[in-house]
Amino acid sequence: MTATRLWIRDPLAILAEGAGGGIVVEGSRIAELVPAGGRPSAPVDETVDASRHVVIPGLVNTHHHVFQTLTRAHPAAINKPLFPWLKALYPVWDKLNPEAFRLATRLAFTELLLSGCTTAGDHHYLYPKGLEAAVDIQVEEARALGIRAVVTRGSMSLSESEGGLPPDTLVQDDDAILTDSERVLGLFHDPRPGAMVQIGLAPCSPFNVTKRLMRESARLADAHDCRLHTHLGETLDEDAYCLEVFGQRPVDYLEEVGWMNPRVWLAHGIHFTDSEVARLGRAGVGVCHCPTSNMTLASGRCRTCELEAAGSPVGLGVDGSASNDNSNLIEGVRHAVMLNRLTYGAEAVTHLDALRWATEGSARCLGRDDIGRIAAGREADLALFTLDELRFSGAHDPLAALILCGAHRADRVMVAGRWRVLDGEPLGVDTGRLREEHSRLARTLFGGV
């Protein structure tokens, strides 16, 4: 059966060269870029008038903790830096159960879709008793929503009593973690181009996993051709912990456990020296910049420009919804512009740089060259925004306006050639019911702590 050809015609603006007349989608891929004033080279079955829309590649989220949507603006943790913030929330998160986790995942993935995100990366490291099938739940929810997903099997194995940060109730044994990592890789990981679900391995951070778990995870990743992810270089407290416990800085730790290679991408990557930036770049280690979370927790500023110049892929992530308090990646693009201009100067970082980080850069962090760009042969993952709100009135450059004037909700979103958001609403999701059920569980499980 021949795939339907859809022409998304004459966009107001598009983040692609030579596509002023739009793009043709055939099946799950982009078949053709149409020049301004031109027409497709072959007949089309359907046309969508995009004259009101700014069209960009679907955004790619490379770091999140979706379970944290249940503890947004929690009184136990607001106005705290990372380590005290974590210690305040660990006992709260101990109550997480499968029903709550499913709703948290559904809500966060829906939020991401509505913000123009077509690939949802999540780093789930919390496995209280009863939540052993967390990865299975996330894969089910991603498939139901039709969002592309990179679900990392996170872990914590070094408890407070053993010199780590989390309480004993939230850690798992190394062997149990590795066994389940092999299980979910075997069940769900698809390394092929166009994959809708991929699995990564993500021991949480130096202060809550063992070195053995880091080394064994790297060996598993090699065997299964999957990515490796962890937090690194987020705070000065982490630097101090690594020096005290391991006698080395975080990047030295990373090298010792066999993680200095292109299979790896890191969350945050703030507190690196010049020589460490150069080492990471030579190794091809990616870094996910999380501007909103970094500002909320006052962790510091990622050295995005230096890392990218050194050779590291740089992507964007919303990070956990208890240190960001939403799951909106297009908002994160705006924050990336603002924070990095404060760091590097007004002329050094543009809206196009931040959009590149959120699309091509994020895709590189995930080891993918099939998403993140509008080009013939790439997956048809697209986000279409209108500029009809008051916030955009008077704007002259549509692509710049999308970021600088603060877009926060897409009008249409396509994943793998299929519409998943139409007229600003996610298909197949009762958002009112989802919000009510999610809010009720958040109050019941985590309120009044």
TrEMBL record:
GO terms for molecular function: deaminase activity; hydrolase activity, acting on carbon-nitrogen (but not peptide) bonds, in cyclic amidines; metal ion binding. The keyword Hydrolase applies. InterPro entries: Amidohydro-rel, Metal-dep_hydrolase_composite, Metal_Hydrolase, MTA/SAH_deaminase. Residues 54-418 form the Amidohydrolase-related domain. The keyword Metal-binding applies. Keywords: Hydrolase, Metal-binding, Zinc. It holds the Pfam family Amidohydro_1. Belongs to the metallo-dependent hydrolases superfamily. ATZ/TRZ family. NCBIfam families: PRK08203.1. This is 8-oxoguanine deaminase. It comes from Methylobacterium durans.
